[in-house]
Amino acid sequence: METRSIRGFHDVLPEDAKRWHRVEETAKAVFELHGFSELRMPVLEFTEIFARSLGTTTDIVEKEMYTFADRDGSSLTLRPEGTAGVARSYIENSMWAKSPVTKIYYTGMMFRHERPQKGRYRGFYQIGAELLGPEEPASDAELISMVWNILEGTGITKYLTLEISSLGDGICRPQYKEKLVAFFAPERERLCEDCQRRLETNPLRILDCKVKGCSEIASRAPRMIDSLCADCASHFAEVREALDSAGVPYVVNPGIVRGLDYYTRTVFEITTGELGSQNAVAAGGRYDGLVEELGGPRTPAVGFAMGMERLILLHQAAFPEGFGREISVFIAHMGEEARKRAFRLASELRGLGISTEMEYGGKSLKSQLKRADKSGARLTLIIGEDEIRRGVVKVRDMDTGKEDETTEINPGLEIAGRLGGK
Fold first, then answer.
1. What residues contact 334, with CB distance under 8 A and at least 6 apart?
2. What is the tens place of the pLDDT at every residue in 177-214?
């Protein structure tokens, strides 16, 4: 038996979890301010949910999904992203009938069979949100502003750039695809094998290819933003105007494609130069046809997702210290009666909301004080036969080394008072 994790999967260790808590709590607070509610989805869906949502010619569906046959023969897939599951739940639970606007956020693990790199795993965590119902540009701008507010709250925006663009809609995008085919056809032999196939199935995917030769050719291709119809151009202009009014900094990047077929009109990415080639921290956009494609009513929508692992790497760079385990009190004891009193006092302190640890066995005082020091406790309480006889608790300030005593009449409240003043 190999005692190690599967390649591309990882543990979030206790010393890292506090950072995760800070980012997740910040995100949830911002979501609630914007009227979003949490949806908890299963990690397994029928494969068709993703195949129809993401597009059968996308890399995710073609190469990256973890798909297997269930005992009844049905095809199941571990979710590679969150939006399709939200759309499925929206339809199945008739959320559209309950309100003209539905605001959902989610957190959880996603699965893609990619080559693991820094900040990119096969089993990775995302925070995301979907705003379903409105098609007005203000909803795009609200969601993008909300994402930026989350990142501001985590203190990492100095590392980030918000890039926006538009992918047009069902009116102007087909004409744009014809322009792409006309541009790439003479270059066909210089394209990679995947892109030669994409030229026939979905030429937009060529723009997202990471092969050097393909990306160099694609850099000269016609731009969707220059081919927008009047309605899409107006929509994009209003999104920019709303972001300007909210003071959200951004740049227009016509090269944004996004790797999923369901996007229409507004798309955005938040990128960083701190993580090498894995530069996308958050991304999203509008997807007005997805719910209808899955069998629901016509429902305009806009959403996003951000990768927790990359956020945490940036958070570590911004705040290298201050996220260790925090213990306020450690109780050392000597003797069986002292151990019983220590247990009672630890329970009292925890009931007052004070994080407390104690020695469970009968180790020497020296050994217990070493553990107290390693725990990072602010105060160490010492109870021995002498303290029991005199009805006191010895208190050592771990920062100064100074010791004094408190009575055992109501030691919990007195210790709480001391900690409150430190």
1. 365, 383, 384, 385
2. 899 899 999 999 999 988 999 888 888 888 878 888 89
**Coil/strand/helix, residue 280:** strand
Contacts of 85 (CB under 8 A, 6+ apart): 41, 42, 45, 49, 79, 106
379 touches 415 (CB < 8 A): yes
| Residue 186 belongs to some domain of the structure | no
Strand partners, 271: 161, 280
Report the CATH number that the domain containing residue 86 is assigned in CATH: 3.30.930.10
Tell me, yes or no, whether 78 and 139 share the same domain: yes
Asked if residue 142 is part of any domain, the answer here is yes
- Which strands sit side by side in the sheet containing 44-46, from one edge to the other? 44-46, 75-78, 66-69
> How many Å apart are CA 376 and CA 328, to the nearest integer?
8
Instruction: Give the domain range for residue 145.
Output: 14-172+228-318
pTM summary value? 0.86
Q: What are the C-alpha distances in Å from 356 to residues 163, 323, 329, 363?
A: 46, 18, 5, 18
